[in-house]
Design a protein that fits this description.
The structure is a homodimer.
Chain A (H helix, E strand, L loop, with lengths): L4 E4 L14 H10 L2 E8 L2 E12 L2 E7 L3 H6 L3 E14 L7 E12 L1 E2 L3 H15 L3 H4 L5 H6 E7 L3 E6 L17 E9 L3 E2 L23
Antiparallel strand pairs in A: 1-9, 2-3, 2-5, 3-4, 4-8, 5-6, 5-10, 6-9, 7-8
C-alpha cells in the first residue's frame, strides 16, 4: 500500500505525518465501516480481533461478553483500534507498483471500561445504531441481566490518524510505454436481499432501514 | 460477535477451541480476503495496520518498503495477522443478540524476513497473484532495485485458528413473540467497472482477470 497519506486528527504519535485530513474524515471512515480490528497485548504477544464498534462524538466504543478475553485484556490497557475500508485494487504496469485504494483510521490509546450506567446504555445504543440506524427503536432493549453481562469499553479519538490511498496507479515513466492494462478495479460492499428468520411468527416486511445503499449521511 | 466458533488448524494456543474446521477453510478465508490486519508491538504498544498478503502452502507473506516501520518491527518478532471477511448483519429481536456473520482467520507466530532471493520472488508473485490471479504474467517483473527495496516477511500458518459466525439470529425464546423483523442482511464485496488509467498510451481492453465474480477456485 503505497502513496498513502497519514494524517492527524488532533495529535499523532508514532505515525509519520504526511498530509492533513480533518477529524471529519476520520469520523466518516469509522462510521462507514461495520467492523474494526482491535489490537491488544497478552503475555507480550499482540492479538488482533475483529469486533463491532460505535462512535459518539470523540469516543469510539466496543463491547462484548464480560467473559471476553479481548475485552478484559483491553480495559485499562494501551490498545489500537484500526478501521479499514477497501476501495479498490490498483493495477500498475509494474508488479512493484501494485497497490490498493483504501481508507484506514487508526486509534491509539488507553481503553477505559464504561461503568457509568447512563454512558453504557448510550454506548450500546450507538453500537446498534452504527450497524443499523433505526434499529435501536425497533429492537427490545437490554434487560438488567443482559446489561450486566455486557462489557463496554471506550477509547478516545484524541490520538487518531488516517491513512488514505486513492486514485490511479503511479508507474515509472519508462513503464508507460508498456502494453499492459493499468487502472483501478473499484470495490464496494453491497447488501443482498434480506433473509428473514424462519422463526418469525408473522412474516413482517423487511424494514426500511435495511434498504441499500445506506442514507448518505452515514457515508 | 456471538455464537462464534474458534477452530484450530493444527495447533492453537490461547484461543479457546470450540469447533473443528480443517486447514482448508482457513486457507480459503486467507485467499478470499484482499487485505489483512497485522498486529505488532512497538515500545509496549500494540499497533494494527492493514496490509496485502499472499499465501503459498502453509506460509502467509506480507511485504512493504524496506523503510516500513511495521515491517521492520515485525521481522523476528511475535506478530498476529488477522484476516476477516464480513458476510452479513445479524438482526435479532433483542438489541443484545445483534451480531455479524463473518469468517476470521488469526495467525500467530514469529515473523521471518525472507532473505532467500528465490523464495522472495515466489512470495512477491504470490502477493500479486493473490490480488489479481493472472496479473504476474502481465505486469513488468521487479528489477533489482525494486527487489532490494522491498522487504518480504513470512509467517507460518502452523498456529492459525478460525472464528466463524453464520446463520440466523439466536434470540431468547420469550422474544419470538415480539413483532420485530429478525433475520440477516447478507453483505458482499463486489467490483464495479474497471477504471482505466488515463495515461495508457493505447486504450487496451480490461483484461479477463478483472472479471467479477472471481473464478470459483479463488473462493
Amino acid at each position: 500500500m503505497e502513496r498513502g497519506e497519514v494524517t492527524p486528527r488532533t495529535a499523532v504519535r508514532r505515525v509519520p505525518e504526511r498530509g492533513s485530513h480533518g477529524p471529519g474524515l476520520i469520523d466518516a471512515v469509522i462510521d462507514e465501516a461495520f467492523i474494526c480490528h482491535l489490537g491488544f497485548i497478552e503475555d507480550g504477544i499482540p492479538f488482533v480481533v475483529p469486533t463491532i464498534h460505535g462512535r459518539l462524538g470523540d469516543t469510539v466504543y466496543f463491547h462484548g461478553s464480560s467473559a471476553s478475553r479481548a475485552l478484559r485484556r483491553s480495559r485499562g490497557a494501551e490498545v489500537c483500534l484500526t478501521v479499514t475500508i477497501l476501495d479498490g485494487l490498483v493495477l500498475a504496469r509494474s508488479a512493484f507498483h501494485h497497490s490498493m485504494n483504501y481508507r484506514s483510521a487508526m486509534v491509539l490509546g488507553r481503553a477505559r471500561e464504561v461503568t457509568d450506567a447512563e454512558e453504557k446504555l448510550r454506548a450500546l445504543q450507538a453500537l446498534v445504531e452504527h450497524v443499523c440506524p433505526g434499529r435501536w427503536e425497533a429492537a427490545r432493549r437490554p434487560n438488567l441481566r443482559e446489561f450486566s453481562k455486557t462489557l463496554v469499553v471506550a477509547l478516545s479519538l484524541e490520538e487518531a490518524s488516517l491513512k488514505v490511498r486513492s486514485g490511479p496507479p503511479v508507474d515509472e515513466d519508462a513503464d508507460h510505454d508498456l502494453d499492459v492494462w493499468a487502472g483501478v478495479l473499484p470495490l464496494e460492499m453491497v447488501a443482498q436481499t434480506p433473509v428473514p428468520d424462519e422463526l418469525m411468527k408473522r412474516q413482517l416486511p423487511a424494514p426500511d432501514y435495511l434498504k441499500w445503499p445506506r442514507p448518505i449521511e452515514r457515508l
